[in-house]
Structures
1.
Amino acid sequence: MSALGKLLLRDLALLLPGGKRGGSLLPFLFFLAVAMLFPFAVGPDAPLLARTGGGVVWVAALLAAILPLDRLVAPDLELGIFDQLHLRGVSEEAAMAVRLLAHWLSFAPLLLLATLPAAALLGLEGETVRILLLGLLAGTPGLAALGLMIAAMTAGLRVGAALTGLLLIPMAVPILIFGAGALAQPEGAGLGLAGAISLLLVAATPFAAGAAIRAAREG
Amino acid sequence: MHAFANPKRFLSLARWLTPLLLVSGLLLAGAALLYGLLWAPAERLQGDSVRILFLHVPTAWLAMGGWSAIAISSLVELVWRHPLASLAARASAVPGAVFTAICLATGSLWGRPAWGTWWVWDGRLTSMLVLLFLYFGYIALAQAVDREGASSRIPAIFGLVGAINIPIIHYSVIWWNSLHQPPSITAGKSAMSPEFLIPLLVATFGFSLIFGGVVLARMRALLAEIQAEARLRRKALGDSASRGRGVTA
Amino acid sequence: MTSGLKPKHQRLVLVLLALVAIIGAGTLAAWALRNQASYFYVPKEMMANPPSPDRGVRLGGMVKAGSLKTDPDGVTIRFLVDDGEAEVPVKFSGIVPDLFVEGSGVVAEGHLGADGTFVADNLLAKHDENYVPRELQDMTEAQKRMAIEETN
C-alpha cells in the first residue's frame, strides 16, 4: 500500500466521527441547533420559514464549517507529523491534498444527512431540499478547501475560532452567494458557479496550505 | 546580513520621501475636494450630492489598490523573500482598510439621495464590504503572527489567496446586473464632463500620494520596532555571553 | 501516486491535477452562465417570459415620458417602464427617490401581478454613467463645447 493511501486511512481514522481526534459529530449538532434556533427567533410562521429556510441552512453550514478547523492541522504540527512525512518523502502539498480529501469525507456527507432534519424543522419542500442538497454538494468541497487553507495558516498560532471565522467568512462569500442563490433561481447559473469556485479552491489548497505548513515548520 | 543592507538604503530614501508624499498629497487632495465642494457645478440629475464623488471614487480605487499592494508585496515576499516586502504588505493593510471604510461610508451617504436607500446589496457595494472584512482578517492574522513570532510568509499566503477577491469585485458588477451604474471611466473614453473628471483625477492622485506616504511612514515604524527588538536581543545575548565568560574565567 | 514518487514529482502531479481542476472550473462556469436566466428583467423579457407572481424579481428600464400618474389617494403612483421595444405598467405606493423622474432609469423590486401590472415594493432610481452639469443638459453639443472653452 502506498504511503499516501496509508496517510489517507490515518487521516480518516482521526477525522471521521468517533475518530481519535473526537468531537466530529459536534459541528453537526451545532448545525442542527442553529437550524432549531432560527424559528424561535422569527416565529413559527411556516411560509416565512419555507422562504428563508434554505438560506438559514447555508449560513448554519458555513458556521459549522468553522468549528473543526482548530483541530484540523494544529495537533499534527505540534507532534511533528509533517517533519516525519517530509523525511519519508511525502511533500507538504501531497499531505495537504490527502488531508483535504479526508476533511471533506468527514464533513460533507454528514452535513448533507443533517440537512434533511434541518429542512424538516424549517418546513422546506421537496424541490427546495433537492436544490439545497445539490448546492451543498457543489459548495462543500470549496468550504472544506478554504477551511483547510485557513487551518494550515493558523496551525502554529494560538488563536481561537474568532480569527479562523473572520478569515473564513469573507472568503466563503462567493460560495454562499452562488450556492444559496440557486435556491431563489433554480434554473440559473448558481449551482454551476458554486461548483466552479469549489474546483478552483480545491486546486489551490494543496499549494497554499502546503506553503503555510512549510512556513510554520521553518519558523 | 542582506536583511539590513537594503533597509538602510530604504530608510535614507524614505526619510525625505515620506513627508514629501504626505504634504503634496494633502495639498492636492484638499484642493480637489475644496473645488468639488465649492465650485464644481451641480450635476444635471443628482444636483449637489454628486460632490461626494471626489471622495468616494478615489477611496474606492485605493481600497482595491491597497489589496493589490498587499498581493504584489506578498508575491515578492514568497518568491524572493525580500525583507521589505512583508513590511510593505503589512503597512498597506491598515490604510487600505481605512480607505475601504471611507468608500463604504461615502457610498452609503451618496446612495440615500441618489438611489433612495442607504444600502443596496448590489455587486460592487457587497464586494467592497467583503473586501473590508478581508482587510480585517489580514490585519488580525498579521498581528497574531507578529505576536507569536511565526513566519511572515503566513499572512503573505492569505494576502495572495485574498487577491482572488479583486477579480470577483470586477466580475460581480457584470454578474449582478445591478443598480450600480456601469463604470464611468473606461480606457480611452470617459463619459464624464471635464468639470468632474479633472478634479476627480487630481483627487485620486492626491489620495494615492497620501496612501504612499502613510505606507512609507508605517514601514519606517515597523523597521524601527524590529531594529529596537534586535538591539535588545543582542544586548541580552551580549550580557549572558559576558556573564558566561565571567563564570569560565 | 505511490511512495516511490519523490516530493518534486508529487508536486508535479498535483500541479497537473490542479490544471485539470481549473480547466474544469472554467468549463463549468461557462456552461452555467450559458443557462443563466435573468432575475433582472427588462420589459421585453418580462412580456416574452413572465415570471410567476409569487417570485420576487426586479424590473429595469426607463420611465416612459408622459406615463407617470398619481392615484386619487395621493401616494400610489402608476407609470410605464419602457425599454424601446415593450412596456410594462408599474404600480407603487410610497416615497419615491429624488432621481425618479419621467425619462430616467428605474429599477423596481417586486412581483408581476396576475393582471400584468408589476407591483413594486421598492423603487430604486438608476442614473446613467454620464455626469453632466445641470446648466449643460439643455445645450447642444456645440454650445457645450463653447461653454467649456469659456470657463477654461
2.
Amino acid sequence: MGLRHTHNLAAQRQVVVTGYGAVTPFGSGVPAMWQALLEGRSAVRHSPMLSEIKGLRTTVAADVPEVDARWIDRKKRRYMSKMSIYAVIAAHEAIQMAGLTPDALQDVRTGVCVGSTTGSTCEIDHLFSEVLKDRNIEGVKSTHFFKIMNSSCAVNLGQALGIRGRLLAPSAACATGMIAVGLAAETIALGKQDVMICGGADELHALTVGVFDTLEASSRGYNDRPDMTPRPFDRDRDGIVCGEGAGIVVIESLEHALDRNARIFGEIDGFAMTGSPGDMANPGIDSLVECMEMAVEESGLGKDQIGYVNAHATGTLRGDVAECEAVEKVLGCDIPISSLKGHMGHTMAACGVLELIATFLMMHNDVLLPTRNLQRPDGTCGRLNLLTAIDRRRVNAALSNNFALGGINSAMVIRRSINDG
Amino acid sequence: MTDSEIIELVNQSLINEFELDPGAMTPDAHLIEGLGFDSLDFVDVVVVLQQAFGVTLREEPRVREVRTLGDLHRLVIEKKRELEASQTGSDSAGRAG
C-alpha cells in the first residue's frame, strides 16, 4: 500500500511485513507449518468431539495439537480461551522475528488488530450448558465474559503485550484474518499507527462445523479417510473441513522499519473488500472480480506482474467454481493458482493470515505449493493453471483471496521484500 | 465433614483454580501479598468455594474480613456448620410437622 494512487485515501505510506507467527493444525510455529506444507502433509484427522454430536455428518477436522500455554502468566491467561492462547503464541513468534522491544510494543503508536469469527464457542458452550443450566448465575466466574466477547483475542493480546495504541477487533466470519491485516495496513498507511500486530484466530467447536453441515457445505464423504479431504478444485470434492489456529503478522510503515533497521519480509501493496448482497452463502462472481480488480489496482502493479494466486478455495462445490471464474476474468488462465485448505482445512479467522504467511514464504523460497488432494481437476475449474505439484519459480508478487459467509470478500496483493534477492 | 477435611478441600480447590504451590498453603499465608490474589480472584474464590461446599458466600459480610488463608478456612468451617445446623433444623421441623 503506497503512494501510487492519489485517489486512494490509504495511499499515504508504504506498509511492510517484518514478522509472522502461527499456531496451526501442524503445531506451534511457522516452521512447523511451512515444513508440513512443503512435504504435502495433511493435518486433517478424525475428531472424537465431532463424533459425539447427533446429526453431525462430518467427523473430521483439523484441530491444533495441544499447546503449552503455562508460560503465559496466569493473571493474563485466565481471560483467554483457546483462540486467545493461540493468538498470543503466534504473536510472540511474530514479535520475536520482528525484533520489537517491550518499549516499542508499549508505544502508543503500536496497535493490535486481531479478530475471530465469534467469541469463544467453547466457553459459550460451557457457560450455557453447565454454568447456567439451572438459570442461576452464581456459578459465573469473573473471567467468563472476557472469553466470549467478540474482541476477546484483541484485548487479550493487548493485555499480554502491554499495548497502549489502537485495539481493533474486526469480525467477518471466514474473511476475518485478511480483513484484520488489511484494516491494520490501512491504519498504518493513513498514519494513525506506525506498527500493528494483526491477524486472526479461532478455536474448533462443533457449532462451527454444524453450521457448514447444515448448509450442506461440509465434507462428509471422507470420514474414514481424513487425509483425503478437503479437495479444492477436485471433481470429487465434497465440502469444507473445519480447523483452528492463529496467524499473526507484524506490519509497520516502511520508514519505521528502516529507522529501526528491521528485516523487511515483504510488502502489502493492495487491499480491497466488497460485499455480495445477492446471497448469504454464495459469493457473486461479479463482486469477487471487483474485489480482486480493486486490490490489484491499488497495488499499482500490472496484472502481468502478479505471478501467483493463493485461492480461498475451501473445497465446496459452488465456491471453488465461482472463485475460478472470477480469477480467470481478472488474471486469465495462465497464472498459477492453488489453495492450502487441502493441507490444513479451513482454519476460519486464521486462514487468511496463515495463507498470506505461506504465500510470502513461497515467494521467499522461489517455490509455489500445489493444492493437496487435487487429483482430477473439476472441468469447471480446469481452465486455470491449477497446481498439482510443487512449481519452482520466482514470483515477485501474488494475489491472495479470503471470502466469507454473509457475502464479505477480501483480496490482497503482496510482494516479496525489496531486500529479498 | 471434619474441620481438617474442609481445610483440605479449600486448599485443593484453590490450588486447582489458581495454580498455587501446595507448599504455600499455610494458614498464615496472606491472600493478596502471599498468594497473589487480586480483586477478580476474590470473586472466583467465592464461586469456587460455593460450588465445593454448597454454602452461600456471595452476600456474606464476613468475606470482606478475610485476610489470610487461615481466615478463609475458619469462615468456610463456620458457614459449613451453619448450613449443617439449618439442614438439621429443617429436618427436625419436617419430622415434627
